[in-house]
Design brief:
- Helices cover 37% and strands 20% of the residues.
- By secondary structure, the chain is of the alpha/beta class.
- The protein has one domain (2-207): NAD(P)-binding Rossmann-like Domain (Rossmann fold, 3-Layer(aba) Sandwich), CATH 3.40.50.
- An 8-stranded mixed β-sheet has the order 3-2-1-4-5-6-7-8, sandwiched between helices.
Amino acid sequence: MKIGVIGSGNIGGNLGKHWAKAGHEVLFSSRHPEELGDLVRESDGKAKAVSIEEAFEANADVYLLATPYKAIDRLSELYAGEYGGKIIIDATNPYPERDGDMAQEVKDSNRNASEYTAMKFGTAKTAKAFNTIHAEHLKDRAWRTTDKVAIPYAAQDEDSKNKTRQLIEDIGFDAVYVGDLRSTKQMDPDQKLYGKSVGRQELEDMMR
């Protein structure tokens, strides 16, 4: 798959390197793509650094959204013509102390964080994954063949569900489906699945 990584920090950077190693084509992007040279050099596979605009114009199969949560409004408005019908994997989290009033309003609303993203990226097919795992565990605990870390995920439809599961499993994690986006409250910050790096059985027990 061709994967556009929107936001190439700890989560996006590590995932992009893993996916390149797994054989996917990865487009790392940020507002300053000239600063992403080390990520590209560290990637074992097909990867390059581009601007956010170039990533959205590249007609990728999947986009990973790994920016600060406060960027969602502007990204969804600027690139509305480019992501229609594409899969967006939302790895963001609303942190009011970082993201301000917008994040607090989402946390206080009846919608969970992923439903807000799906509303903003309305013409895309939104999934939620990789927002619960610590960056260092994402980096160090991939590629296991035993004692795998389970990654909870949710999706809007079968296409986003299947591709998200594949991208989790391709890099040595166990994919655990929690349901559609209405079920992702438990994945949000301070909720029961957030920050838990455990195996499939323990994660499934937490969900009961």
